[in-house]
Fold this protein.
Amino acid sequence: MTSTKDLAAFDFGGPADYQIVVQGTVSEEWSNRLGPLEITTSSQENGESRTIMQGTFLDQSALRGLLETLYALHLPILEVRKIDDPPGKE
């Protein structure tokens, strides 16, 4: 279980870049509906497709909205990862 002290290390209040990977295909046409995301689809060795979506979310609420939309579309969510700022970026 995560303690309150552990949660203090996370910043839930501002914009952040995230990468979301889903099983299946999400068309580039969905980019504006899902938010201004960079969408890339690739085929795996086993023949399945995976879509990687990357973009900036204004807050955790915006991220949750996207995840709920993907769930409603029956797309299995494989990974959600916060992308840290590169060194030297302010």
In short: Residues 30-84 form one domain. The first strand starts at residue 16 and ends at 23. The mean pLDDT is 81. The two ends are 32 Å apart (CA to CA).
